[in-house]
Design goal:
The complex is a heterodimer of chains A (about 240) and B (about 110).
Chain A: E1 4-12, E2 16-24, H1 31-42, E3 61-64, E4 67-70, H2 76-79, E5 84-88, E6 95-97, E7 100-101, H3 104-112, H4 135-143, H5 151-155, H6 157-161, H7 168-178, H8 186-194, H9 207-211, H10 218-234
Parallel strand pairs in A: 1-5
Antiparallel strand pairs in A: 1-2, 3-4, 3-5, 6-7
Helix pairs in contact in A: 3-7, 4-7, 7-8, 7-10, 8-10
Chain B: H1 3-32, H2 37-44, H3 48-76, H4 81-107
The chains are: A alpha+beta (about 240), B mainly alpha (about 110).
């Protein structure tokens, strides 16, 4: 007889409840496999979000046993040692239904922190030569692999306490662009993140770097942004 | 928190760090030598140096603590931003008033 997992899944929107399902336990089973099994074999009305299933798209993040995780690359054996598996929607974001959250506030804050690349050249100019061993490029490389899964945003205590705070992902993106010599919006970017809700709101609890599935360190990027914005403020380049 | 308040809070912390060490050293010195209140007042009254030392200490504390209180209020209470600002300013003024009153009591001749 196949061993079974007792899995609690959040059902409903902001108000709802956890419901328990029995799912066959398999070798190398991921949390996303479990959710998919429930949706395909037990209750097709279960809502959740995924796309690539291989840790690239950043769509499938959920709260697993109290911690935000990318479910497609999280093995059940790793997180359900006690045999308990509780899966809910990401925290700090509005719940649409079941395990699906509204990502709009997350991406709006990403834009508020000037996360869009502002080119200095056109397609008709020669391709910029960026030396990979410069400190700026290495700083950009350290943070560039963000997949916008919002795990850091859901893990962040400051986001929970301060709805205005733009969050670790938006600030990591800002730090990446600040270190890109091809970008032209750095003063506007520093201005955008120097006000209330910007990088200075971070308490450096480091949940973001502890839980980032890409092993990035948003806390380090935010500390660097605090230094950079402070220098710009003292030079009179930005105002608050 | 914004960059201006961040800078003020870090700057006042930097000012307070050596002042706290001197303050603790003074406490140890006074207690180990068994100074009475009269002994201490005889050294502090009319002293511009002690007035400046503790006056600066009080100013740094009032600024530093009120910025911290503003953060706590804005993150942990439903107070609107302006109300939190007003409460923090009031707290800072009370700290400054009480502190300067205490400094005046020991340095004014």
């Amino acid at each position: 007889m196949t061993a079974e997992l007792a899995v609690s899944l959040w059902r409903g929107a902001e108000s709802g409840r956890y419901e328990t399902y029995r799912v066959p336990q398999r070798a190398s089973q991921t949390v996303l496999d479990v959710v998919t099994f429930v949706q395909r074999h037990i209750d097709p009305t279960l809502s959740y979000r995924f796309a690539c299933r291989v840790g690239v798209c950043g769509s499938c993040a959920m709260t697993v046993n109290g911690k935000p995780r990318w479910t497609c690359r999280t093995h059940v054996a790793k997180v359900a040692g006690s045999g308990k598996l509780e899966i809910g929607p990401l925290e700090n974001l509005p719940v649409i239904k079941d395990l699906t959250t509204d990502m709009q506030p997350f991406f709006e804050k990403w834009q508020r922190a000037k996360g869009a690349f502002a080119p200095t050249k056109t397609r008709h100019d020669p391709i910029a030569q960026i030396k990979p061993d410069t400190p700026a490029r290495q700083a950009a490389d350290a943070a560039i692999e963000c997949i916008n899964c919002a795990v850091c945003y859901a893990a962040c205590d400051t986001v929970r306490w301060n709805a205005d705070y733009v969050g670790p992902a938006a600030l990591t993106r800002a730090w990446t662009l600040l270190n890109d010599p091809r970008d032209s919006a750095n003063i506007a970017r520093l201005q955008a993140i120097a006000g209330d809700g910007g990088c200075h709101s971070c308490h450096s609890h480091q949940s973001c770097q502890e839980l980032c599935p890409q092993a990035l360190n948003p806390t380090a990027a935010i500390v660097a942004l605090k230094r950079r914005t402070t220098a710009a403020y003292l030079k009179g380049e930005i105002a608050v | 928190m914004n960059v201006r308040l961040y800078l003020w809070q870090r700057a006042t912390a930097a000012v307070m760090a050596p002042l706290v060490l001197v303050h603790i050293a003074v406490i140890f010195y006074a207690t180990r030598h068994g100074f009475s209140a009269a002994d201490i007042l005889s050294r502090t009254r009319g002293s511009i140096a002690w007035a400046a030392f503790y006056g600066l200490f009080v100013a740094a504390v009032a600024i530093h603590a009120s910025i911290g209180v503003r953060n706590i209020l804005s993150e942990w209470t439903p107070l609107p931003e302006r109300r939190a600002d007003a409460c923090a300013v009031f707290f800072g003024l009370v700290l400054a008033l009480l502190g300067l009153r205490a400094v005046a009591a020991v340095v004014l001749p």
